[in-house]
Every structure is written in structure tokens, then in C-alpha cells.
């Protein structure tokens, strides 16, 4: 257990990025640590999550989640240790998952915190494979894309926290073939050798449509989209009749300063009777018990594996986020502040 500190460091958004975020768009500032009120807990954060969706929250636009406010602390997934509690069911020494990351200490409403057990899985796993990315992969493939045994599945951004799990879950559920794209030869090797993809390619080495056609000469049935842009256009060309697309992310255009052109072959949606559906993971909470039971079992049995890219220190949260946007991570990007 830790003593209550007088101050905490936290990251603020100080300018709305135009195009790619820059280090000067963020500031690490010191703030006093408040005592928890009734129904609240004080948490020392141990692991912080940075995720692609956070880029959208840096724009002052209406969306499914409110934008970050200028000169206010940013937030995101975090796992930490309770060091003070005024909430029934939480005691100092407990470990919790909550949404007030990007800072060292957080006063959290107990209703918005969930206990996690470091004896079941490493604490960082609750931000990745057993957290939001894992749930996104599970729900996005099985519920949104209506995956069925024998499907041929293509995943873009396949070496990331979500994509790497989509491919493995598809394989465990009986996919006929799993194909992934990634941004380096090293990541392609990870997809093939560690995650068990049947085929993978480096999208920087040639047109995506050509490489996908070579990897899936008989077409694909499911496309799990983390990238958008050229990848989506290629997938629309390769999808078979009544194929399904889960739109999970479009990282290729998150930092665009001008409107990006849509796929030029959207007529395929009509001609092939495709189903293209966007997803937000919070819409699928009813699946969580099934997700925890099944994915937890695969982790314990060794059938499902995962990677983390770990950055150390509160000083480097901004660097970790920018690195994530540049594709410097394999698996989940985690910032570790302590034990």
C-alpha cells in the first residue's frame, strides 16, 4: 500500500492537433490530490492505456464520446491500487480497472471502478486482452460480423491490440483461413509465427488489393477493419457474396487535414449484398461474461497469446500515444508507472 501524496502529475491537452499530434499539443502538469468523498476511492495508477480512439477525442466535434477539454486532464483506461476508500466493497490494497488514466493518482467514483485480480492475470492484461481491446475483438468478430465456422477472415492492423486477437479468435472458432496485414516484415513474422495467421503481408510493400488477392484467391467472407482507406477498398473488392464487414477503426484517416476519398468500389456493397456495420464496444456489454469466460480459458490453456509494448514512466505517456499512431507497437501499448 502507498501513502497518500500531496500532488499528482497529469497530462493535459493544451492545443487541438491539426493533422498529426505534436508533443507541444500536450503538457504534463502537477495538481493537488483530493481526498475521496463518500462513494469514491483514491487510486494509485500502475498501468495506463493509450488507444487510437483517443485521437478523435482531441478534436472538438460531436461523437459517441465527448471530446477532451483543453487545459483539463485527459482520461482513458487505467489499472491501479486503491490507497484510500470511502466506498463500500473497496479497501486499500484492492486493484481496480477504471477510466481516469493519463495521471498518477485518480479519485474515482466507485460505481465506475471494477475490481480485478492480479492472481488471475497480470494487471496490464485488463487493459488489453481481457479489457476493451479484447472485448472489441470478440464482439466485433462474433456478434457484429456474424462469424461462422468456415469463413475466410481478413484483418487489417492485425499486429495491434485488437487485430491480433481477432485473428486468433477466428482461428480458434474454426475459420477456413485467416489473413492479416501489418506495416513491417517483423510484424508479419509475428502474425505467422506467434498468432497462427494462415497468411500475412506488409501493406507498405505493394498495393493492398493485389496482396490480398494473392493471399485469398477465392475471396474473403469477413473483413475486420481497423484501418479504412485503401484497405477497405481492397476488401470490398475481395469480399464474397453476402460478406460482412466490421468497421472498428480507420486509423489511416485519423490525422488527415482534408476530407479523405471513400472507396471507389462501393457498388460492391450493392452487387454482392454486403453488410457493412460500424461498432462501438460499449454497445456489447451483454457479451462480457461470455467473453471473460471463453477468452480467459484460452489464455490459461495457452491457445491464445498476446503481446504488449511497454513504455515506462508518466513522463512518456504522450510519447507512447504518438508512437501508437505511428504503428510502433506490437500488441497493446501500455504505459507502466509502477509495480
UniProtKB/TrEMBL annotation:
SMART domains: PKS_ER
GO molecular function terms listed in the Swiss-Prot or TrEMBL record: oxidoreductase activity, acting on the CH-CH group of donors, NAD or NADP as acceptor
Keyword Oxidoreductase appears in the UniProt entry: yes
Domain called Enoyl reductase (ER): residue spans: 22-335
Transmembrane segments: none
Alphabetic keyword roster: Oxidoreductase
Gene3D superfamilies, alphabetized: Medium-chain alcohol dehydrogenases, catalytic domain, NAD(P)-binding Rossmann-like Domain
Pfam family, one: ADH_zinc_N
Keyword Protein transport applies: no
InterPro entries: ADH-like_C (IPR013149), ADH_N_2 (IPR041694), ER (IPR020843), GroES-like_sf (IPR011032), MDR_fam (IPR045010), NAD(P)-bd_dom_sf (IPR036291)
The name this protein goes by in its record: NADP-dependent oxidoreductase
